[in-house]
Amino acid sequence: MAVSTKIDSNITGLRAAEEASLGVLPAAASQRWVEQEPNSYADFGGNITTVARNPINPGRQRKKGVVTNVEATAGFNADLTQTNFQDMLRGFFYANYRSKQEFTGVQTVSAPANTYGATGIGTGYFVGDLLFASGYTNTANNGLKRLTTVAANLLTVAETLVAETSPATAKLVAVGYQGASGDLTMTNSGSAFPVLGSTTKDLTQLGLIPGEWIYIGGDATSDKFATAANNGFARVRSVTTNAITLDKTQATTVTDNGASKTIRIFKGRVLKNEIGTSIVRRSYTLERTLGVSDPAQPTLEQAQYVSGAVPNEFTLNMASADKIVCDLAFIATNSSTIDEVVSGANTLLSKVASVVRVPVVEADAFNTSSDFSRIRLSTVSTTSGFPNPLFTYSEEATITLNNNNSPNNALGVLGAFEVTAGTFEVGGNITAYFGDVASIAAVRNNSDITLDMILVKANAGIAIDIPLLSLGGGLPNVEQDQPVTIPLELNAATAAKISSTLNHTLLMVFFDYLPNAADL
Questions:
Q1: What is the sign of the dihedral through the CA atoms of 387, 390, 392 and 393?
Q2: Which of 202, 317, 358, 457 could bond 34 through an S-S bridge, CB–CB 3.0 to 4.6 Å?
Q3: What are the percentages of helix, strand and coil residues in the chain, rounded to 5?
Q4: Rg value, the chain, Cα
Q5: What pLDDT was estimated at residue 1?
Q6: 125 CB neighbour count, 10 Å cutoff
């Protein structure tokens, strides 16, 4: 047998599969091995701990030690795209998505009736909903659609469709709502939060929750408020049948009755740290392929596994004039290897018959130059929908999510038998360009601060919201021939102090579709 003398990093690969329980994969047919795109690795595998024997002896020498533990960890760095971390981020948040209505499966698309048909397809959709269609064979059947009629097994849209029987991956996602002419209004009394209201639409049907972000307004003049300040991103404070109370708006809103306007609202998929029985722990098996050990058998690969991998730390790194990159770290219970030269063909876990191998979804990385629609650090207000920002521009920022997991060891167990979750902790830092002393005062006064960032690219986007944090640091950095900057430490906490409905520390919204105006 020929033996490989080296393995190049460029032929390695990484996949991850969610486990049914800690360290245990589901049946093969239920395994989804999702391909990852690592830029680099941190520790990956099992760090073997040994303890030497050192008895008192005249030779003054130690004796061979014994293996006492396997400390299994995994970590890698990757670019942030619209889709690449949506599945795995659930594990870091210990949560499920708060999704809007989504339907995936084979459908009969009919023309000229302009309908999508399938058993139960109409459940949860409403007239006026904006749907984002994807995965259809005919291009005309993909993209943004407006619902005009809803039946149990049939959805009719305003756009022209092409007849087809869709692939099983075809998907319809509720991404927004378009109001009837003149129905959606904006009210700002000046002494309370602004309100997006309706006289005929039950706004609770939009599925919005306090703390999530929406985008108000479409691209057409008829689909947005005449006053520019009333359009754009805003955070939902509360929802009732005919009113959505907003805060953290794009600008100071004004009262507008929306006359003759069919205002559009866009919404997304919400992920936030949960409380109580809504907390869901996930674990993964990570497979790193390592090339072949025998060049004469190039189809027989070898791989390294980290199992019982519980997501621990997720770090979002944002430097000026760069792409956004993420660091992911896992605490695991065990590590192992497979060489198909020894075990046989297709014995790598991701190659076992009937498992699903999910390829990377090709997408551009978000960059820090042109993909930020908004980044704002401001004081928390109990009445104003548009609190004053503490700075205009920032140089760099980091946001870190840490579950403070720790492995549990026991007698008779090599490696960990369980992983205990600690405090859900969110922090980071931001270096801003200094403008006035308000930011210094905010640190000194221990003011209630809130941070939001919104990324938009190719008619999709991600909103990141920390509703409550305190600031540390705050010493201005003054250097000759350089602008004055102020580095700030971010220490987040539950926002239940502000409102009982904002009982989370970190929230993200993934928008499957946003209008062109959101990227301005």
A1: negative
A2: 358
A3: 10, 45, 45
A4: 26
A5: 58
A6: 20
